[in-house]
Amino acid sequence: RKLELDMRQALARREFQLHYQPQLQLASGTLIGCEALIRWRHPDRGLVSPLDFIPLAEEIGLIVPIGEWVVRQACRDAMTWPDPMSVAVNVSPAQFKSDRLVETIISALAGSGLPARRLEVEITEGVLLQENDRTLQTLHRLRELGVRVSMDDFGTGYSSLSYLRSFPFDKIKIDRSFVKDLTSKPDGEAIIRAIAGLGKSLGMTTVAEGVETSEQMQRIRLEGCTDVQGYLISKPVPAEDLRQVFAAFP
Ligand code: G
Ligand code: G
Ligand code: MN
Ligand code: NA
């Protein structure tokens, strides 16, 4: 398959790029960090979305070297941001299981000089689906390093709640489908309020994803979420454009 062949070359040809989307802390009105989102600048196809190549990369095992590149690049970029701004990387199930994740992270932190407290790992339910001792051990090793761990796309899977019981996440990222329902469905705010309350009682921060309007942001603040991420604050932008985004916030 052509795409597969191209992807095998893409790392060496430096065709991958990270875009960054900031997260705003509601209480302080400051930006607390950014999520790294990979892009593939394909020579013929232009910018390819991760939705179109991450699943294939997972399937053929290429997610491991790609994921390593993401972690290293994200740490280097975050070193140029004001302390204590953090960077969040998405780690997919195959990468998580590869057994090199912790070593890669230790090496990326050492190589860049980024303190562990400024790195965040986002995992989805997929990682915990076949939860076993090793999965939990990896999560605890990350925690011991001082790296923070977030539960991504919260609420979309089958047993999000039970995962919160298995591991003490630092942050819950509320899936953007719930933010969409906030103003469009009669009881839309009930779910957000419940998750925000859950986060509060478990000592986890809660970030609402996909916030596009100021009306949504106001409601989210009222329901008790601590942070927001979405086009209202900024779209994901290349590292070079972040300076301007940072400048727009105190
Ligand atoms: O920006 P968006 O279209 O940017 O991202 C689409 C999906 O791709 C999201 O679910 C996101 O978590 C995933 N994604 C983006 N960047 C990465 C990455 O570096 N690694 C992995 N595993 N997934 C990513
Ligand atoms: O799955 P994950 O949460 O890691 O990926 C975040 C995805 O959400 C990315 O594809 C990103 O580009 C997208 N995204 C970020 N902010 C918004 C937003 O305000 N609206 C919509 N529709 N998508 C967003
Ligand atoms: Mn994410
Ligand atoms: Na998400």
TrEMBL record:
Boundaries of every EAL domain copy: 1-250
Protein name from the UniProt record: Diguanylate cyclase
Residues included from the entire protein: 331 to 580 of 582
